[in-house]
Amino acid sequence: MLRLEQEDFTCGRSRYLDFLKEAAEPTAKIFVKISLEHTESVFWAQIDTGSAWSVLDPLVAKRHGYLDLDGERIGLDTRLGRKSGILARLPVRFLADDGVPFDTEGTFFICPDWPPGRTFLGYSGLLASMRFALDPQANHFYFGP
Amino acid sequence: MGQPLRKAEPETQSYSDRIRELVESDMVGGARLLLAEALEKGDHDEDLSGWESVLTETKGRPNPDVECDFDRTPEFRWITEHSEAYRGQWVALVGSELLAHSASLQDVFSSLERNKPKRRPMLHYID
Q1: Residue B101 — φ and ψ, nearest 5°?
Q2: Considering only CB atoms, which chain B residues are within 8 Å of A52?
Q3: Candidate from B51, B60, B125 with C-beta closest to A57
């Protein structure tokens, strides 16, 4: 994987999507592959470095029993208006097409009335504590500790 | 002439409420500092373990025991071509093969549990 001054900089890479036709905003975005609770299912999640917190699709949250978690209750101003929910720490796996997958944890905002199908990976509670890099010519997302 | 010294106002809000205000304003660094101060002082009756959990930065680790994934371009292509017919539904795909679809994610998982796919399925909600 990527190396910097003879040391590993990242451990794995995966191909990302920069466009989902049916997404609410069909403009260039970065969708990477993750799994939650280290299950055998893959979801696309949108990288959002402008957001402090990650946001989990409420139907995925329900499926994993996260809607009943006893997290810290907060209200957040989002582009969909003021939303109430909880913050909770969840395990996330970045799946690798090449190299080694990366297991970490992220703080997710879980809100029952968030629109389904939209999971975001935010900066302060997740991306800031890992390394990541993009190769936009190849649509490669590099990640690691 | 000097200004009379003003007595500092005592902080009336709990640490928890102050941390929440900072978090809701996206001032995560400030929230972490305040939490660290509260934990260091320790002279309060608040349970801050919930804030500790969500504000702590986790160092992840590579996991060589997990099988690599594969290029999902065929799944992406399938979604692009078939999105109209499956709007409002979850689809489970491996390559261009549709394994299950339903408006209920639970139903899709149940179907996958009954017919376990050989490769890891991609789940996607078509908006």
Answers
A1: -155, 145
A2: 23, 26, 28
A3: B125
3-state secondary structure of A128: helix
Phi, then psi, of A25 in degrees rounded to 5:
-120, 95
Tell me the pTM.
0.89
pLDDT digits (tens, 9 = 90+) for B78-117: 998 998 999 999 999 999 999 999 999 999 999 999 999 9
| Interchain CB distance below 8 Å, B24 and A74 | yes
SS3 A27: coil
What six digits make up the tokens of A71? 């997290």
Beta strand A102-110 with A54-56 is parallel
Select from B24, B62, B127 the Cβ nearest to the Cβ of A22.
B127
- Pick B54's closest partner by Cβ from A23, A89, A96: A89
* Burial B35-68, CB ≥16 within 10 A → b, else e: beebeeeeeeeeebebbeebbeebebebbeebee
> In chain B, what residues touch A125 (CB-CB under 8 Å)?
28, 54
Contacts of B63 in chain A (CB under 8 A): 93, 100-103
What is the residue extent of each domain of chain B?
15-55, 73-125
State the 10-residue block means of pLDDT for chain A, 145 residues long. Answer: 86 88 68 85 93 94 88 90 94 96 96 91 95 94 96
Superfamily grouping for domain A3-144: Acid Proteases (2.40.70.10)
* Domain spans in chain A, listed from the N-terminal domain onward: 3-144
